[in-house]
C-alpha cells in the first residue's frame, strides 16, 4: 500500500510534534495576513488623509476657520489634521491665558504637536513588530519540525533490516513540508514589514515637515500680534 503523498495525507501521517509545528506556523501565517490587510488599509487611509488635509491647509483658508472645522469632529481626527488641531489649540490657549511671550507660546504649541506626532506614529507602527517577529522566527520553527521529522524517519529506518527509499520518503517529505510552511509564513511577513516600515517613515517625515512649516506660520503670527500690541 502506497503512502498518501498529498499535503493533507502527509500532514495526517506526521508525528504529533511535526503536526503541532505545522499548525502553529499556519496560525502564524493567518495572523500575519490579517495584520497585513489591516495595516495596508490603515496606512493607505493615513496617507490619503494627510494629502487631503495638506491640500486644504495650503489652499489659503483662514487657520481659525480650519481649526473650527477640525474641532467640530475632534474625535475622528488623524495624522496631520490631529497634529494641526493640537498645536493650534495650545496656541490659542496660551494666547487667551495672557501669555504674550512668543517663545513660551511657540514652545507650548510645538510640544503639544510633538506629543501628538509621537502618538500617531505609535498607532501607525502598531502590529509591525509582530510581523517582524513572525518573519524572523517562522523559518526556524519550520526547520525544527523538519529536523524532528527527519530524525524520526532515520530512527525508524534503523529498526528495519532492509531499508528502501519508499519507506523513508514519506517521513522526509512530511518533515520538509514544515520548512515550506515556515517560509510561506515568513516571506510575506518580511516583505510587508519592510514596505509598511518605509510607509511609516515617509508619513513621519511628512508630519515632521508639516510641524516645522506650521510652527513657522504660528511664530510669524505671534510676532505680528506682538508688534501690533506694542503699537
UniProtKB/TrEMBL annotation:
BP-aspect Gene Ontology terms: bacteriocin transport; cell division; protein import
Keyword DNA-binding: no
Transmembrane segments: 20-38, 128-151, 171-193
Domain of life: Bacteria
One Pfam family linked to the record: MotA_ExbB
Keyword Transmembrane: yes
Topology relative to the membrane: Multi-pass membrane protein
Entry's localization field: Cell inner membrane; Cell membrane
InterPro entries xrefs: ExbB/TolQ_transport, MotA_ExbB_proton_chnl, Tol-Pal_TolQ
Keywords, alphabetical: Cell cycle, Cell division, Cell inner membrane, Cell membrane, Membrane, Transmembrane, Transmembrane helix
Positions of the MotA/TolQ/ExbB proton channel domain: 79-206
Gene Ontology, cellular component aspect: plasma membrane
Main location: membrane
Assembly mode: The Tol-Pal system is composed of five core proteins: the inner membrane proteins TolA, TolQ and TolR, the periplasmic protein TolB and the outer membrane protein Pal. They form a network linking the inner and outer membranes and the peptidoglycan layer.
Stated role: Part of the Tol-Pal system, which plays a role in outer membrane invagination during cell division and is important for maintaining outer membrane integrity.
UniProt record similarity statement: Belongs to the ExbB/TolQ family.
Protein name in UniProt: Tol-Pal system protein TolQ
Amino acid at each position: 500500500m502506497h503512502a498518501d503523498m498529498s499535503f493533507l495525507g502527509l500532514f495526517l501521517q506526521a508525528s504529533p510534534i511535526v503536526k503541532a509545528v505545522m499548525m502553529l506556523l499556519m496560525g502564524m501565517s493567518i495572523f500575519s495576513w490579517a495584520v497585513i490587510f489591516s495595516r495596508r488599509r490603515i496606512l493607505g487611509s493615513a496617507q490619503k488623509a494627510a494629502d487631503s488635509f495638506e491640500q486644504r491647509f495650503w489652499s489659503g483658508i483662514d487657520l481659525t476657520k480650519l481649526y473650527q472645522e477640525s474641532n467640530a469632529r475632534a474625535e475622528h481626527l488623524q495624522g496631520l489634521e490631529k497634529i494641526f488641531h493640537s498645536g493650534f489649540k495650545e496656541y490659542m490657549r496660551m494666547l487667551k491665558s495672557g501669555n504674550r511671550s512668543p517663545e513660551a507660546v511657540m514652545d507650548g504649541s510645538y510640544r503639544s504637536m510633538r506629543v501628538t506626532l509621537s502618538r500617531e506614529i505609535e498607532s501607525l507602527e502598531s502590529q509591525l513588530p509582530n510581523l517582524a517577529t513572525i518573519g524572523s522566527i517562522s523559518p526556524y520553527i519550520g526547520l525544527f519540525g523538519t529536523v524532528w521529522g527527519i530524525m524520526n524517519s532515520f530512527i525508524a529506518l534503523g529498526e528495519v533490516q532492509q531499508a528502501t527509499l519508499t519507506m523513508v520518503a514519506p517521513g522526509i517529505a512530511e518533515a520538509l513540508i514544515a520548512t515550506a510552511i515556515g517560509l510561506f509564513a515568513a516571506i510575506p511577513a518580511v516583505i510587508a514589514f519592510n514596505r509598511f516600515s518605509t510607509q511609516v517613515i515617509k508619513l513621519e517625515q511628512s508630519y515632521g515637515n508639516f510641524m516645522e512649516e506650521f510652527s513657522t506660520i504660528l511664530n510669524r503670527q505671534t510676532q505680528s500680534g506682538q508688534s501690533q500690541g506694542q503699537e
